[in-house]
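INTERNAL TRANSFER SHEET
From: sequence group
To: structure group
Subject: Mitochondrial fission process protein 1

Please process the attached sequence and return the structure record in the designated field. Keep the field labels unchanged so the import script can parse them.
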Amino acid sequence: MILHYSLWTVWCICTSTGYANEVGEAFRALVPVSMVWASYAVATAYVSADAVDKGKKAAVAHGDNPGKTTRIAVAVVDTFVWQALASVAIPGFTINRVCAASLYLLGRTTRWPLSVRKWTTTAIGLSTIPFIITPIDRSVDFLLDSSLRKVYGGGEKHE
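Return from structure group:
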């Protein structure tokens, strides 16, 4: 049997790897810490691949124009910094703290067995992910617009 993947399927699989560390953090109470760190490795690989992809697109878009190398570097750096903050560092920290607080509060306010508290914490962490994406993305845009993008004029914004 030959497997056939549509471009949409491949895009969905690749894009979801950007959320690997959030899922890893949500499962932290249930899995060995090495699996959580592995989820960060997967997310970092996605961030790096996206930055390289944006660099290649910038190279094609700018052809042989003067300043091509600078524009490629700006595209790669902007994408890498934006993705590292918006896809790895801030969401990972947020889910980690939500899960830690949930596990602590469940331990203080319920008489549930530890395994139930851990699974509930994981469910809370996973259900938090869709709600934090847009605010984090907008905050990182604001942060970069107010800092790094002023250095290079904001010409190559992450898309």
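Handover comment: DSSP finds six helices and no strands in the chain. Helices lie at 7-16, 20-26, 33-62, 68-109, 114-146, 148-151.
Transfer complete.
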